[in-house]
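Structural prep section.
Before we set up the soaks we want a predicted structure of the protein with manganese (II) ion in place, mainly to decide which crystallisation condition to try first. Input record follows.
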Amino acid sequence: MPTEQVSRIDPAPPGHSSPDRLLDDLCAALESYLEPRQIAEVRRAQRFGAQAHAGQHRLSGEPYITHPLAVARILADMRMNAECIIAALLHDVLEDTPTAKEQIAEQFGEEIAYLVDGVSKLTQIEFETRREAQAENFRKMLLAMVQDLRVIIIKLADRLHNMRTLGACSPEARRRIARETLEIYAPIANRLGMNAIRTDLQELGFAEFYPLRYRVLAESVRKARGNRREIVSKIEAALQDRLQQEGLPCRVLGREKHIYSIYQKMRTKRLSFSEVFDVYAFRIVVDNVDSCYRSLGVVHNLYKPVPGKFKDYIAIPKANGYQSLHTVLFGPFGVHIEVQIRSEDMEKVAEAGVAAHWLYKLGDSIAASSGAQKRVRDWMSGLLEIQKNAGNSLEFLENVRIDLFPDEVYVFTPRGRIMELPRGATPVDFAYAVHTDIGNTCVAVKIDRRLAPLSTTLQSGETVEIITSPGARPNPVWLNFVVTGKARATIRNYMKNLKRDESVELGRRLLDQALVNACSKSVQDLDAHDVEILLAEFKCRNVEQLYDDIGLGNRLAPLVVRRLLEAQAGKGEPASRTRGIKQVFSRYMPAWLGGSKDALRPLAITGTEGMVVTFAKCCNPIPGDPIQGFVSSGRGVVIHAESCKNVKEFRNQPEKWIDVQWETSIEGEFPVEIRVDALNRRGVLATVAAAIAAMDVNINNVTIDEHDGKYSTIIFNIAVHNRVHLARVMRRIRTIENVAKIYRKRA
Ligand code: MN
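Run finished without errors. Recording the tokens verbatim:
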């Protein structure tokens, strides 16, 4: 008898079912595994929920309570425990009714209140964008999940029912929800190894988000199915018979691929429909691990294996705990056969993932060897680490999303430990996976004992040895190629702190400059009392925070000094003097900022301030150019050439300008643009470029602007040390034949 399973996209629920009917069905399902006392509690929760949602309806017109009932039913089919079923019945009560969390705790206990709160969105906070709200709610839910996995299991069941009943929503909402399902919820289900719910979410999400593609593929499957039945049952019988002969009791199942997985294979492997669909897939379920390997031998004896296709996910389980042997065979009638071989216990984990923990009393052996629970724990502790390093919820969401696609590679440490990494991972990802410190100080890598670039994509089976150096630092360039959330979040966090060190130092110098200008004192002269005043005035925790604020341009140093002087004059009672300060402040302001320039000491620019001092792209100032600093909120100081036309435009914000000058001993390279008008002769560009390079000047970029047949303008972006250096370069280019004119580009 052919047992080929039909693709399991569930039809919409038939007609409207009354809440009473749904409740009876639910309790009937629960009777198979819960005690009467627990079922009574479930009925009580249903009454509580129905009362809270009284008068509310779903978009389809049904009483609202039908939705929590349906969600509870999905969880009952997964044989989840009583707390989980009760929480499911109450899951929308906090969000959609005036009921408070305390009430639920009082009625049903803290545990259930926690679960319900975990799946509820934040309703008290207003968000600026939907994206932000989505990200913040997602973060809240994931953090709740780390405490109790049932939070996410309820959420997945909730999402599954919402997907099944999308029909009543607006087209826009349907697309949004379908997309979120494909991008976030299905991958989470996959991460947790909950394959049954994952495939349902994917099929429904795909059908909704790509309706045309879904219809075309579903139709192709329907047409192709006819010819298959016979072949499927023949192969199935052959496998079954042979295994039986060898004394291996087993179940053999013909599998039909899900439409979404056909689509994914066609897309990622660039295959045609028939190339994907014509592969016949079978699953062999046997009693124990030993039988798996013996069955593999039998099967390879029956049909020849396709070389290079065998995968042992029993010895090395997938990231979500999935275990199986995979192989591909040359079957009869010239078809390829994909075979998965696993034990009954592995089959349960493969279907239910972490939920299997609640469903079955699995033997310790399977729990230990697949480590499904441990792997999920590892993933969740990784989430906590990402959360710690991520600046805000959007960043968190982005990093988690990267981590959710566990198409993995397996590599080895020099000591033979197996590390699993997402496909596309690089040695830097590997280094961070081993330990944050190793990532932060890695400088080179040996892959299979050969030196390789840090950006190399790792392949399964390679041995990776990271070479570290104590003084080394993460390089921002790594962000261009790392793929793991952990590496990305750690590097970013490091860059942020680095910027903070720089902004603190710049802020200190700016305050020092302002102090000298105002009262010929320096930062060192500030005593403990002065510092206290400053911290109280600006509500800073410590002086670094104040420097940081100044360095980033969020506060202006002269105004900080002004407030300090006023507070000192008021004998250190800053709080009571606010109004007085404001008055004095406006009186003094013009003298302070527009006043006699000569008396002010400019800030020296060394070129090593890093990210908090930047050089304007409009005018590319180089040492020797007269310059002006513009304090830009959150970005520190931007240096412009005095002649820049933007300087004139910003004249109306005098309080934002600061006087700066180049440090006399300045070193380093600064970008500058020069334009060369030249006759259109073959080789002109090469000659000019060679002359520049011969002077040991780096060319960052070249563009050519051909304005008529005769002349072209070649624009070079080059790196020079200062004006003298630039003048030397320009003099040299001027002597080149066919060069008509050379000048520096000005904004
Ligand atoms: Mn819901």
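Observations: The radius of gyration is 34 Å.
Flagged for discussion at group meeting.
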